[in-house]
Structures are given as structure tokens and as C-alpha cells.
Amino acid sequence: MELSYSIIIADDHPLFRNALFQSVHMAIGGANLLEADSLESLLALLEKGEDPDLILLDLKMPGANGMSGLIQLRADYPDIPIVVISASEEPSIVSQVKMHGAFGFIPKSSDMKTLIAALNQVLEGDPYYPAALLVNQTQQHTELADKIATLTPQQYKVLGMLSDGLLNKQIAYDLNVSEATIKAHMTAIFRKLGVKNRTQAVILLQQMDSEVQ
């Protein structure tokens, strides 16, 4: 009896999402495919009780700031395999994706044969990472990545909103918490990142995310 898989495709580009939809159908006959065009719509599907066998996640879509979408999903839904599909194919990005717990990385430039093979591999329980894109990171980049990884999903979200130029009271309003809570988050963020102010914290985040296009 053929297995039936449930897969969520999360990408904000309709054309690519449709192309990926067709590719997955070719790779896996009879799969139940759902689509999300933002982190919010993806989380809404999961909160409604969808329990997919796999999430195919774009790094850059509304609601996600670089790695923040992946980090939040890994924290909230640790049992769901996530494979990042991205146009950002720099080895440092692939290393970050792996470090943050993704089950695989598929470049958007992959041909159909590679895509189908990668999908079949992850659904059989084996992570997929193109060997050519996995390289050792520099010590400096590894140390920075380790610092970012110590942030909780909520702290990472606050840091991302700081990077967007929002004030404490705006962040508190958007997250529906008190301004005192945001100040406590920022104190923890500064301590974990080893910085003294929001400007230095934002610079570190930008260093991590600058290569994600």
C-alpha cells in the first residue's frame, strides 16, 4: 500500500510555489499538499491541527526575518521535519540552516531530478544537504552563530523588530506584552550577544542575515 504524505509548501512567490507544487506531485504521487505564503499563514495551518510529514520552507517571506522563521518553527514544532528551499545558496547560509535544526537544504536552482531525489531522501528519514554547499565556517562566524542560537524564539523576534527600527513601546504593542517585558528581553539579548546597546545587537543580526537574499 502506497504511503500518503502531507506536505506544506511555504513560499511567498506564487510562481515558484506552483512550480514546487507540481514537482512534489511528480516526486510523490497522491501527496496531500498545503500552501502558505507567509510565516503567519503557515503557523495558522499548524495551530489548526495540521500535522504535516514535511514543511518546505523559504527563508525569505513575510513574517520571517532571515533564520527567525526556522528558529520559531523548530522551537514550537520540534517533531516536524523542515527542509529549507532557498535561492540563497552560500555555504554559510547552508551551515546556519543545518545548525538551527533543519532536516535539509534544497537550492532553488536544483533541477527536477535533484529535487525529486532530495524529497524522496528526506521522506525516507535521511537529511539532505548538497555536499558542495557544506563547508567549515570560520571561527568568528561560528562564534556569532552560537551566540544567536542562544536566543529564545521570542528574544529573536524582539531582536528582529529592533532591526526593523521599532521602538520598545511599538514592539510591546505588536507582541501584546508590557514595555517592561520588552526591556527584560533586551537585557537578556544584550547579555547573550555580549553587546552594550541595541545598535550593536542589530549589527550582529545584520551580519548573520546579510547573505540571505
Distance between the termini: 42 Å
Instruction: Kindly provide the name of the CATH class of the largest domain.
Output: Alpha Beta
Percent strand: 5-15%
Biggest pleated-sheet summary: 5 strands, parallel
Strands side by side in the biggest sheet: 2-1-3-4-5
What's the domain count?
Answer: 2
The residue ranges in which pLDDT falls below 50 over 5 or more consecutive positions are none
Average pLDDT, rounded to a whole number, is 83
- The percent range for helix content is 40-55%
Structural class: alpha/beta
| CA-based gyration radius | 18 Å
CATH architecture group name of the largest domain:
3-Layer(aba) Sandwich
Order of helices and strands: EHEHEHEHEHHHHHH
- Could you say which overall geometry the principal axes of the C-alpha atoms support? globular
Number of helices: 10
CATH topology of the largest domain: Rossmann fold
Notes on the protein architecture:
The structure is a single chain. The chain is an alpha/beta fold. It folds into 2 domains: 128 residues, Rossmann fold (3-Layer(aba) Sandwich); 71 residues, Orthogonal Bundle (Arc Repressor Mutant, subunit A). Helix content is 52%, strand content 11%. A 5-stranded parallel sheet has the order 2-1-3-4-5, sandwiched between helices. Helix 3 packs antiparallel against helix 7, helix 7 packs across helix 9 and helix 8 packs across helix 9. The longest helix is centred in the C-terminal third of the chain and has 15 residues. Keywords: Phosphoprotein. This is Transcriptional regulatory protein DegU.
